[in-house]
Amino acid sequence: MPDLDATIIRGAIALICASVVSVVAWRKRLLDPGGAVAASFAGTALVAFGGWWAGILLVAFFLTSSLLSVSEHDHPSRTWQQVVANGAPATAFAALALLLDAPTLLVSSAATIAAATADTWATEVGRQSGATPRSIKTLRLAPIGTSGAVSLPGTLASIAGSMTIAILAALLAPLASMPVSIGFPEQLVIVICGILGSLIDTFLGAVFQARYQCVTCDMRTEEPLGHNPGHELVLESGASWLTNDAVNLTASGIAGVIAALIVR
Fold first, then answer.
1. CA dihedral sign, ordered 201, 149, 228, 237
2. What are the angstrom distances between the C-alpha of 83 and each of 79, 90, 103, 261?
3. pLDDT digits over 23-61, tens only?
4. Could you tell me where the beta strands, DSSP code E, fall in the chain?
5. pTM score, two decimals?
6. Domain count of the fold of the chain
7. pLDDT in tens, 55-71
8. CA-to-CA dists, residue 157 to 42, 45, 115, 183, angstroms
9. Which end of the chain is more exposed for a tag (fewer CB within 10 A), N or C?
10. Are 31 and 83 in contact (CB under 8 A)?
11. Domain that includes residue 113, residue range
């Protein structure tokens, strides 16, 4: 059974730390106000259930992804939807691990973070490399930044991102909320599931993610909220509810489930 007092104390300390980090990220324009609030709660819950181990893994994802993004161009601040998409799966598996007294589910928690890291590194490095990607749906060349398209530099970055989280997970295992063994087999599971999660994200983005065409300016976009509010958008393909954030959430969650099935 989980130590409730230790969980509450850890969560209280985590709330302070997560709030400070979120405020700094907001001041640096890495998070918008909603994203900062969501990050505070997400970080608190993840540390409370998974220990400082899980919190550091999530911070590692956030910092490296932010550095890669800013190094190329100023991205819009991350919203609460993006924070939830990247943090909710890891928190869910960490909570199940603690409540069910099933330490192996912490491997799934790490796998979801590895998937988010692999996907983000692939996207950012792929953009910066200038290599023209190919759509996995049609195998044709696609514009840089197109969801569902892959390039060699992006693929290598995906592998590197997943491996980074796996190595950190092994090194920081003593900081987990419960004793968990993360040896070479578990690291391999995290790496493989992280890469699979990135590939699943790419597949969902290519086949099912919503794409819109603007009737006003004839521009195509996958982010309707970021388009000119005075323009009229028409759904061109995909499901309207399957946004990029929904794709990220789904792919990371599937990566965690696959990891759970393997380690079991």
1. negative
2. 6, 11, 25, 26
3. 998 988 888 999 999 999 999 999 999 999 999 999 999
4. 134-135, 149-150, 211-214, 220-221, 233-237
5. 0.89
6. 1
7. 999 999 999 988 887 64
8. 26, 29, 12, 23
9. N
10. yes
11. 4-263
